[in-house]
Amino acid sequence: GLKVGFLKEGFEGCETDVEQVVKTTADVLRNAGATVEDISLPMHKDAMPLFHALTEGIYIQSFYGGSMGKSFYPNSITDHYRKAIKARPFDLPITRQANALWCEFTKRFYDGKFYGKAQNLCK
């Protein structure tokens, strides 16, 4: 049957009405025969700092054609993406623009330091 896990740490600081909708949904699923459990993943609290640090590497790859991370990098796609972003940066979603500003700042002043630390934590 269906198994559903609700991340305990995912609700800290959550609005009350959102939390209530999730709990109601859990009850509906449980009544329909699903196994519903609360799960804990303490490292979830570190997700946003890790995300910001790892996106520094993605940013460098996307905007500068560098090779960050452990993967295959199709140069033709990287070249196309980099040219498109430089030609029309304001077509990006505002969240991606904000992320690009953060990544450019960390690249200029910390030169990959946070990306390296995040990669070490992911192991």
Estimate the strand proportion: 5-15%
What is the oligomer described by this structure? single chain
Number of domains: 2
Integer average pLDDT: 83
Q: What characteristic shape results from the CA principal axes?
A: elongated
Compute the number of strand runs.
Answer: 2
How much is the radius of gyration in Å? 19 Å
Q: Please report the distance between the alpha carbons of the first and last residues.
A: 32 Å
Order of helices and strands: EHEHHHH
Number of helices: 5
Strand order of the largest sheet: 1-2
Determine the structural class based on helices, strands and strand pairing: mainly alpha
Q: Unreliable runs, pLDDT <50, ≥5 residues?
A: none
The helix fraction, in percent, is 55-70%
The biggest beta sheet, please? Answer: 2 strands, parallel
InterPro entries: AS_sf
Protein name: Amidase
Notes on the protein architecture:
There is one protein chain. The chain is mainly alpha-helical. The chain has helices at about 15-30, 45-65, 75-85, 95-110, 115-120, and strands spanning about 5, 35-40. Strands 1-2 form a two-stranded parallel ribbon. α1 links the parallel β1 (about 5) and β2 (about 35-40). α2 (about 45-65) packs across α5. It starts with a strand and ends with a helix.
